[in-house]
């Protein structure tokens, strides 16, 4: 009963002890309390009860009862870090028990071998136990044993065997009322889905298991550890670190299992390293390593040591000693049959390369590269990275490019299994090293065309296909509606000066629920297999020039495309350009308010410095036609119209050259519907909307109560032109919840992704609507990038806060030009020129950017 209804079992056991029971019955009651405390409470209390249960079993003169308690005690001692005492308890239990009881003891010893990382011993014991349990028709313990065997198979990389055992166990659980074990089965299926490379299914199953555990009121430390693994694979390392640290704090608070604490610390160390925080990774991994050593868990200790060395290398350390340490770890992991062995060989090869130990590096990388042919996608990625580095060490530029191509193809296939655009974007971080290697070889040995091709290969790939539309999931839709209502109530309360902590807590909870459900969506759109064609780009450019900025070793490389050729120019340091762009953004925020005119010359001077850093000599080679800028993700906030050579030009921005080509070749929808939306709370009340409406015959105008999210989405779907005047909010902490304020609450990025086709052209007359979060290798998340894959060919949006009153004349001038047949970029250029020459209006014009090609 303790794994069917844990808290009820605890109460019943305590009730038995209040009735002056026989030693036999008292032994059972103490054992139940010990199990409850061992798994969900204080280990010290657990050990006290289990020792008492063993004493009472001996007094009852029941060898079978004593053997059973010894097995439970053995598990508790192992989890408490007292490995030697735990194994001794199992030895006594095996000797005391017989038949069916001995099989249960063997199962629990197998479980403890798994906890300790002794996978072969675990398999031996569980294989001895299963036939006896089946013969005894013990459904519950047979299902547990099959689940354990599957879990051990997963640790050894045998995914197919694991799935067969999980399937058999689940069929048995369905015949029982063991609710905790059923939740554990769902969790185990989530782990199997992850090991087979299905991240959305893994997240869905782990969330389902958590809901089941919550109904039972039991903590979920093993689930926390497993979800951390999945989150890291999904590119969500900061979230994995936060989850691991929070679970560790809970575990410490209840005096829980020492073994689980060590595993949580290891998960935190891995997450910190992936999140770019090597200092935290070193601290967590060092403590985990000490705990594993004290618990005699060599398999785990070796994994902690691997993370420790990876984190030290990330701080810039490299030495012959670290090479030797990494190679020894790789040999030990290989002997264990651990899937992490190729990662260790790759690490040893990388450090050796950094020291110019070419022969050693080639040897280690060659071993690591063997994993490129089989296994889950991220394991094959490790192999292709090793192959690329091996080719670089041996001087084969062609070999480097081939390995990078094959590795990125693997990651492409993996990305397309992810339905959520956020996961697709973040997953690209796994390919950053391969893309950088290929770009470096192209810079050294190839021409500008080859460098352009490789710069495009891994740029804004999340935008190459539309995200999978969220399914008609009633829970997701109701969650989004509830989020909108709570967010609107919280906003109203803030404006009234009332406290909103309860509303904000509920809003955060609903955000987590909505995001969780979107991350469960599996990708259904296959890659089209098309590769970027430089010739097609040059043909479509005509008189225009496309400037793609690649970053190699921290320096900007300018690739100027047009006139039938691609030329390369040297730019400045990316870090200096980022600092200058941040200064400009701060100045534009200040210029959005009257009285800051004195800053205008400083902003213009910053624009000149940005031009030197970002365009260099290419600024004088732009010709007289339109210019398309393709910046790296980290420079998305540059106001390009501020650069002197671009100030009087038709300028548009695209996340990639491929994206510009797609936008250029997108046909406008039939019918030519125009939709104008006015949200609440604007200082001008969206004053441009009535006048703009007069230019387009009979447009759809949504304002006041009509400007509600469901109606707005309905009208936006498939429109030729949409103009939205509304307050915009950018969420750096959660970019998919960046929003436009409507009458019934925020219209968020997730809402836009429900459109069958977003408007062909859309003008966002709002603050911060062009602000985007840089994630993954070179990806962007936010309002603009949500629209581009869904059929929008052109967007006007602002990258900074703007003055509402100054926006009105800019928008009126913009629409005057659009109504004559100009493109968005042409109309924006003319609108800037038509504004008054004062600092406020000039800053407003610079804050807006044209994206795409419409």
Attribute tags:
about 60% helix; globular; about 10% strand; five-stranded mixed beta sheet; alpha/beta; six-stranded mixed beta sheet
Strand order, largest beta sheet: 7-6-8-12-15-16
Provide the low-confidence segments as ranges: none
N-C termini distance: 66 Å
**Beta fraction of the residues?**
5-15%
- Largest β sheet strand count, sense and barrel closure: 6 strands, mixed
Write down the oligomeric state: single chain
Structural class: alpha/beta
Q: Based on DSSP secondary structure assignment, what is the total number of beta strands?
A: 16
Shape: globular
Count, helices: 37
Give Rg in angstroms. Answer: 31 Å
Which percent bin holds the helix content?
55-70%
Please state the average pLDDT score. 92
Molecular structure report:
With about 850 residues, the protein is α/β, with parallel strands linked by helices. The strands form four sheets. A six-stranded mixed β-sheet has the order 7-6-8-12-15-16, sandwiched between helices. The protein has a five-stranded mixed β-sheet with strand order 3-2-1-4-5. The N and C termini lie far apart (about 65 Å). The model has no long low-confidence stretch (mean pLDDT about 90). Keywords: Coiled coil. It comes from Streptomyces phaeofaciens.
Summarize the structure.
The chain has 854 residues and is α/β, with parallel strands linked by helices.
């Amino acid at each position: 009963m303790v794994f069917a209804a844990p808290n009820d079992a605890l109460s019943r056991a305590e009730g038995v002890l209040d009735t002056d029971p026989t030693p036999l019955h008292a032994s059972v009651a103490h054992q139940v309390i010990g199990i409850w405390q061992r798994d969900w409470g204080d280990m010290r209390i657990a050990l006290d009860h289990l020792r008492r249960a063993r004493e009472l079993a001996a007094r009852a003169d029941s060898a079978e009862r004593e053997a059973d308690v010894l097995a439970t005690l053995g598990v508790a001692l192992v989890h408490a870090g007292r490995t030697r005492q735990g194994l001794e308890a199992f030895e006594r239990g095996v000797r005391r028990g017989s038949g069916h009881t001995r099989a249960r003891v063997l199962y629990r010893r197998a479980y403890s071998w798994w906890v300790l990382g002794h996978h072969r011993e675990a398999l031996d014991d569980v294989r001895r136990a299963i036939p006896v349990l089946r013969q005894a028709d013990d459904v519950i313990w047979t299902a547990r044993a099959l689940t354990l065997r599957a879990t051990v198979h997963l640790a050894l990389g045998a995914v197919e065997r694991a799935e067969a055992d999980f399937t058999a166990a689940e069929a048995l659980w369905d015949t029982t009322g063991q609710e905790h074990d059923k939740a554990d089965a769902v969790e185990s299926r989530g782990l199997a889905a992850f090991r087979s490379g299905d991240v959305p299914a893994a997240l869905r199953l782990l969330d389902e298991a958590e809901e089941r555990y919550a109904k039972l009121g039991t903590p979920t430390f093993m689930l926390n550890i497993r979800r951390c693994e999945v989150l890291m694979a999904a590119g969500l390392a900061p979230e994995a670190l936060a989850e691991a640290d929070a679970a560790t704090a809970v575990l410490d608070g209840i005096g829980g299992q020492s073994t689980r604490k060590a595993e949580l610390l290891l998960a935190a160390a891995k997450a910190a390293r992936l999140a770019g925080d090597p200092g935290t990774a070193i601290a967590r991994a060092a403590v985990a390593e000490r705990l594993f050593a004290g618990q005699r868990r060599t398999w785990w200790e070796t994994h902690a040591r691997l993370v420790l060395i990876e984190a030290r290398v990330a701080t810039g350390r490299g030495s012959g000693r670290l090479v030797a340490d990494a190679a020894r770890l790789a040999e030990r992991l290989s002997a264990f049959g651990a899937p992490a062995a190729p990662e260790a060989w790759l690490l040893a090869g990388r450090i050796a390369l950094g020291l110019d130990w070419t022969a050693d590096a080639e040897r280690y990388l060659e071993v690591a590269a063997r994993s490129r042919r089989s296994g889950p996608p991220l394991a094959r990625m490790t192999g292709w990275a090793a192959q690329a580095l091996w080719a670089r060490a041996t001087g084969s530029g062609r070999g480097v490019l081939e390995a990078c191509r094959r590795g990125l193809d693997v990651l492409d296939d993996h990305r397309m299994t992810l339905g959520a655009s956020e996961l697709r974007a973040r997953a690209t971080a796994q390919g950053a090293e391969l893309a950088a290697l290929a770009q470096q070889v192209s810079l050294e040995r190839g021409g500008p065309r080859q460098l352009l091709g490789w710069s495009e290969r891994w740029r804004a790939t999340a935008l190459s296909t539309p995200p999978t539309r969220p399914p008609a999931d009633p829970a997701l839709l109701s969650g989004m509606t509830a989020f909108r209502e709570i967010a609107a109530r919280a906003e109203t309360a803030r404006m009234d000066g009332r406290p909103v902590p309860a509303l904000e807590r509920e809003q955060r909870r609903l955000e987590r629920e909505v995001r969780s459900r979107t991350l469960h969506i599996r990708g259904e759109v296959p890659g089209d297999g098309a590769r970027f064609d430089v010739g097609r780009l040059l043909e479509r450019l005509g008189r225009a020039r496309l400037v793609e900025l690649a970053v190699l070793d921290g320096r900007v490389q300018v690739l100027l495309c047009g006139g039938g050729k691609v030329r390369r120019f040297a730019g400045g340091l990316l870090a200096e350009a980022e600092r200058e762009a941040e200064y400009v953004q701060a100045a534009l925020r200040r210029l959005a308010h009257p009285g800051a005119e004195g800053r205008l010359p400083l902003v213009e001077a910053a624009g000149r410095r940005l031009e030197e850093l970002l365009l260099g000599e290419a600024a004088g080679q732009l010709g007289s036609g339109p210019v398309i800028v393709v910046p790296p993700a980290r420079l998305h906030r540059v106001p390009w119209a501020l650069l002197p050579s671009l100030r009087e030009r038709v300028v548009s921005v695209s996340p990639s050259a491929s994206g510009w080509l797609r936008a250029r070749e997108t046909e406008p929808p039939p019918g030519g519907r125009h939709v104008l939306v006015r949200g609440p709370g604007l200082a001008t009340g969206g004053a441009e909307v009535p006048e703009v409406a007069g230019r387009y015959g009979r447009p759809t105008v949504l304002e006041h109560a009509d400007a509600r999210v469901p109606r707005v989405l309905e009208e936006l779907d498939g429109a030729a032109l949409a103009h939205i005047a509304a307050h915009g909010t950018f969420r750096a902490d959660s970019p998919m919840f960046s929003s436009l304020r409507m009458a019934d609450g925020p219209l968020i990025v997730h809402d836009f992704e429900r459109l069958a086709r977003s408007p062909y052209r859309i003008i966002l007359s709002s603050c911060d609507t062009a602000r985007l979060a840089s994630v993954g290798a070179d990806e962007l998340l936010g309002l603009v990038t949500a629209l581009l894959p869904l059929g929008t060919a052109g967007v006007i949006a602002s990258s900074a806060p703007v003055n509402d009153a100054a926006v009105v004349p800019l928008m009126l001038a913009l629409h005057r030009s659009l109504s004559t047949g100009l493109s968005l970029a042409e109309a924006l250029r003319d609108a800037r020129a038509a504004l008054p020459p004062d600092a406020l209006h000039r800053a407003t014009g610079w804050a807006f950017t044209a994206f795409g090609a419409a």
